[in-house]
Amino acid sequence: MKVPKPKPRPERVSWWRYLRLFRADILSAQPARLYRAWMAEFRTPFFRSYMCNDPVLVRLVLQERPDDFPKSDRIREGLAPLLGQSVFVTNGEMWKRQRRIIDPAFEGGRLRDTFPAMWAAAQAAVARLSEGVVEVEEFASHAAADVIFRTLFSVPIEDRDAAAVFHAFRAYQRRQPILNLAAFVPLPRWLPRGFRRGTRAAAAEIRALITAMTARRAAEIAAGTAPDDLATKIMVTADPVTGERFGTEEMVDQVAIFFLAGHETSASALGWALWLLAAHPEVQEAVAAEAAGMVPEFSALSRLRLTRDVFRETLRLFPPVPMMVRETTCPEAFRGRAVKPGAQVVLSPWHLGRHERIWSDPDGFDPSRWGREETKAAARDGWLPFSAGPRVCTGAGFAMAEGVLLLAMLARAFRFEVVEGRVPVPVAHLTVRAKDGIWLRVTRRGGEI
Ligand code: HEM
């Protein structure tokens, strides 16, 4: 079965129409040539934008000189009501200090500590999934939110506060997709910003809920009664350079981004992975067989080779964060073309993952490619679901463990089948989602669990 791909726009459109298409969906707003081009320049009366697929440029921006290509203030402004000064939007010294405090909590040994909570969330997901024709994106969101709450605050999604945060986020998103046009595109300041009515109030409600959870945790840490979870680890860590810890307000900013970046993305990947397994029953059976003997230990994950390759292949075909944006701060030469300061640089995990000059059979689902030698070079140049360099996703290791575990547990407990006439169409909002959800027929397997 063919892997869904958004229909590209015609080659030539006016920039105004381009912006309208872009607002609707950044994936179908792009022309087909971007799957072959190394670079593309977009000119509008207000800004220049360069999509860079050339691996040399991607490395330059993300790894070699990341300080010269910061995130733009627009992104921060667009997300500020919800995320404040979170690590996702800050730059420079502030960002560096925040990463020094956060990163240790996600390192290898510490990641192992989160495994029991992840396992419990996966068991709860298996118990929650019902048989019949099911919209699995919604289910995946629930499961991924549960993982975050259990690992961060040691509470399941059924907890009153956790459920309130989850529902408030959903309401927020329905009102205001997080990556709105104004946040992404440097339009002039006199154009309306696009905050819909009630957005700020919804953001304030979410922050109030998270503030209560964070303040309670600060009190538990002070009293010596706090559980040893991610929130505690981050809150007790002092910056090795300045000795500072996060205050409650700054921690709230980080919790908001962990929740947002950590559950929307993982849910998107899990939803697409389930569809891909449903569309490839022979692979699904092999994943179920591999998972059959799994034991609840962190080290068991490393033996799930096929499941991991399925998850990697999913992230190649449906990277949850389809594009990332940076800004030039000094004159640059991109592939011999002069680029002025203030230009927008777009890096596209979406196009890189399906790039015709990087991958063989770029639109095909083939987990076995991950065992082949040629994939090493392609993956280095074209597999960017977690970004790269110092600003790489903090949760990359966490997300790989979570994704593989959930997929394995679900595949061994259930059989997933595609539903005729319901081929999901990918669209990008905050993450890559299916236009009308991902619908699958779910049947419980007999006896395995
Ligand atoms: C499949 C799941 C995930 C994917 C595909 C993903 C992808 C990404 C990408 C592409 C970025 C870079 C964005 C940019 O630079 O513009 C990012 C940043 C980030 N992610 Fe993830 N992510 C995932 C899961 C998680 C999880 C589980 C967490 C936390 C628990 C997390 C926390 C973060 C944070 C804090 C940042 C900001 C890092 C910084 O700017 O320094 N992510 N993620």
Rg for CA atoms: 21 Å
Proportion in helices: 40-55%
What string gives the helices and strands in order? Answer: HEEHHHHHEHHHHHHHHEEEEHHHEEEE
Low-confidence blocks of residues: none
**C-alpha termini separation:** 29 Å
Overall pLDDT score: 90
Strand order in the sheet with the most strands: 1-2-7-4
| Small-molecule components bound | protoporphyrin IX containing FE
Structural class: alpha+beta
Largest sheet: 4 strands, mixed
Tally of helical runs? 17
Range of strand content: 5-15%
Q: Care to count the β-strands? A: 11
Shape: globular
Task: Give an account of the 3D structure.
The protein has about 450 residues and is of the alpha+beta class. It is built from 17 helices and eleven strands. The protein has helices at about 15-25, 55-65, 75-85, 90-100, 110-115, 115-130, 135-155, 160-175, 180-185, 200-225, 230-235, 250-280, 280-290, 305-315, 350-355, 375-380, 395-415; strands at about 40-45, 50, 130-135, 325, 330-335, 335-340, 345, 415-420, 425-430, 430-435, 440-445. A hairpin with a 2-residue loop joins strand 5 and strand 6. The two termini are about 30 Å apart. The mean pLDDT is about 90. Protoporphyrin IX containing FE binds near residues 265, 391 and 398.
Summarize the structure.
This protein is α+β, with helices and mostly antiparallel strands. Protoporphyrin IX containing FE (HEM) binds next to helix 12 and helix 17.
